[in-house]
Amino acid sequence: MTTIDLRSDTVTQPSAAMRAAMAAAATGDDVYGEDPSVNALEARVAALFGKQAALLCTSGTQSNLLALLSQCQRGEEYLVGEEYHTYRYEAGGAAVLGGIVPQTVPVLSDGSLDLAVLATKVKADDPHFPITRLLALENTHTGKVIPAEFFTAAREFANTHGLRLHLDGARLFNAHIATEQPLVAMAAPFDSVSVCLSKGLGAPIGSMLVADANTVRIARRWRKMLGGGMRQAGIVAAGIDYALDHNIQRLADDHQCAIKLANALQAGFTAQGTSTVTVQTPQTNMVYLDFSSAEVAATVAKRCKEQGILVPSSKRMRLVTHLDVPASVIHRVAEVIVAATASG
Ligand SMILES: *Cc1c(COP(=O)(O)O)cnc(C)c1O
Questions:
Q1: Fewer CB within a 10 Å sphere, N or C end of the chain?
Q2: How far is the CA of 10 from the centre of ligand 1 (A)?
């Protein structure tokens, strides 16, 4: 029985063809700036997003951290959504390692932030207060594509208050495919953007930070300090190149699978008269199920596992479609979850 893993798109495996590309990569010492594959990839990704420079990072957490460390000083603060990854899921790195204070605000239902609320958080120039330096946003957030108009307004807000603007675009490629907005336009409002290659795009390792050349120069120093200066990293770069060549357009398949899964689940729950769960319509590759209790969710996760289907056991259950979840299994996944919910 092959396992179907819907816990995250981070579980995607490098394909045989990707591994072959990695094995064949030209390499050099990237800390010396001599890895031809890394140099070419960084130039490629900078151009892809219309920025001056790009930096290969070990993870999205490192890439976001470098963005904060290179644009904020000790005693300065960044504004961020309280559910955003940069604040909530990165172990407080900016505060621990940079002395950078997070100022959180609630996230709105569409995944954006309220600029009027943010305005109340920007500090006056007063020795009592940290210095407000940067606004960190996210796209996609919990699978939701944030409206472009919000980012345009956020850029104006940043200009008004003299702030830098960073985007955690871990799944920006999903938003790009879902909306058909050009990547350059999506990155344009921001001073820096972080994107992940090891999620839906299927590379085994790697995120990229794109920004102006000076920000990337400072980020490169921080990356070295954090132990992220890798040597023959061309092996990693070749996997990412392969992902950019082959795996961007196919994200549309994942989005189709997510809709198919949500529809099948909804139909199944309705047919069965199950009222202990609600299904959120997906915009990209994530289907959220809200169960009435943690117990039902835990039972569903257990029953699914017995059938070779891995899902989180949380009350708010996130199901993520990706390149290792073929369309052919969606129907069975829905059947198993519907049956398990009825039995729970
Ligand atoms: C996955 C993710 C990251 C980065 O995670 P890593 O596991 O460190 O690569 C950053 N932001 C968001 C929104 C993410 O989903």
A1: N
A2: 9
Asked if pLDDT for residue 344 goes beyond 80, the answer is no
Evaluate whether residue 6 is within a structural domain: no
- Minimum-distance ligand 1 atom for the alpha carbon of 168: 11
Domain with 82 in it: what CATH number?
3.40.640.10
Shared-domain flag, residues 237 and 310? no
Same domain, 183 and 315: no
Pocket test for ligand 1, best of 82, 144, 168 (most atoms within 8 A of CB): 168
Query: Which of 135, 139, 218 is CA-nearest to residue 172?
Result: 139
- 179 has which bridge partners? none
Neighbouring-strand partners of residue 164:
134
pLDDT digits (tens, 9 = 90+) for 77-93: 999 999 999 999 999 99
Domain count, the chain: 2
Task: Flag whether the pTM goes above 0.90.
Answer: yes
* Ligand 1 pocket member 60 (CB < 6 A): yes
Q: Is residue 2 part of a domain?
A: no
